[in-house]
Amino acid sequence: MIIFGYGKLGSSVATCLSELANKELFCLNKSDFPALKSVEDAEDKVPNFLLNIDPGSIVYFVCSGEEKIAGGILRALEKIKEAKIKIIYIVRDQDFLSDEIKKQQKTIGKILQNYARSGLFEDICLIDEKTFKQSFLPDVPLLKYDKVFSQTLSKMVNMVNWLKNEESLYSDIEPPNEACRINTLGVFAESEEKLIFSLDNVRQKSVYFGCTKKTLAEDINFMEKVKETLKFLKKKEERVEYKIVKTDYEQDFIYLLCHTNFVQ
């Protein structure tokens, strides 16, 4: 597995994620490009690079769409097309973007989602910076913001990946429908569902229960609580599935992975 960071924030998140997952890191930043006059200019100026990728190996590609170099994202992805590509796309807080940049990041996001839905990428995970800040980020000064944001987001991504791959005590989770390659993450805490992107038309919701040894050994009502949680989380025609994992943590927690086939 390789973690590929593209752009300033993408590289910051990718660096933290590679440290947590102990995986190879590769980044492309503004400094790797010649001077760009426009976002369109980036497509032809993506620097040459070579990654040692075996066919079918996984590459996590972390990026956002507000920089000029974002115009080169598809060209960079083309260079690693033999890999199984999983996109993490961060939608920057629009309160700080010009109308032109808002349009740019929306266009790039929709293009990446359509490519994912077509099967060119394994999937795309959408992150809304503003929503993430409001729900998960502590108050931090500006000079520490990128670091804290990247650490907090990468911990969530890494935890969900661990829960997906860890052996379960009980599970009825199945791979999402082939078309449902657009997703986002979240948690369920204090009877509230908190997603890090407001995903429309959710088709499948995977609910991961991380449980302490004490809960699993002593709580005789645990499965009833699971049932009530699943009932609470199910909306409309969503398919809600669950997985129970034993952890060494001191507290129980619930993570969510929501899938859709609708471009956002």
Question: Could you characterize the architecture of this molecule?
Answer:
The chain has helices at 8-21, 73-78, 99-117, 129-136, 142-165, 213-218, 222-233; strands spanning 2-6, 24-28, 58-64, 84-91, 123-128, 170-171, 182-189, 192-195, 204-211, 239-246, 253-260. The protein has 264 residues and is of the alpha/beta class. Strands 1, 2, 3, 4, 5, 6, 7, 8, 9, 10 and 11 form an 11-stranded mixed beta sheet that branches. α1 (8-21) crosses α5 (142-165). The longest helix has 24 residues, at 142-165. The two termini are 28 Å apart.
List keywords for this structure.
264 residues, alpha/beta, 7 helices, 11 strands, 26% strand
Tell me what portion of residues adopts beta-strand conformation.
Answer: 25-35%
- Principal-axes shape call: globular
The strand count comes to 11
The share of residues in helices is 25-40%
The N- to C-terminal Cα distance equals: 28 Å
Please identify the structural class as seen in this structure. Answer: alpha/beta
Rg calculated over all Cα atoms:
19 Å
The largest pleated sheet is described as: 11 strands, mixed
How do the SSEs run, as a string of H and E? EHEEHEHEHHEEEEHHEE
> Runs with pLDDT <50, length 5+?
none
Number of helices: 7
Mean pLDDT reading: 95
Q: Brief overview, please?
A:
Helices cover 34% and strands 26% of the residues.
